[in-house]
Amino acid sequence: MELISDILLAAGAIGAGVYCFVLSRRLNRFNNLENGVGGAVAVLSAQVDDLTKMLSTAQDMAKESTGSLGAKTERAEDVARRLELLLASMHDLPANDLAPVEPAAPPEPVFVHHRTGTDT
User: Fold this and answer.
1) Is 43 in the same domain as 87?
2) SS3 content of the chain, % helix, strand, coil (to 5)
3) Does the model's pTM come out above 0.85?
């Protein structure tokens, strides 16, 4: 009976050793930097770094655009105030000053005779 239990114990140990060997090889392939999850993690890490840099650049550009837009908005508001003042001052003018001005008549054409070069 001891012999049978020793044989079963040895078989169990050999089976566990083979299982550990197979598991070790699978784990090495899994963590391989070229084909496995390790490679995917390395690629994703590099992409996260690139995205972080691009986000920082985009934030800087947004800050610059915000400043520029604020300055242009202030300028537009100033111009709008001036236009409002001009329109208000136009209401104070008498109506006859706002009458349309007729353009002056164009001058009469002068014909030059080709042979003599004199006016006709």
Assistant:
1) yes
2) 75, 0, 25
3) no
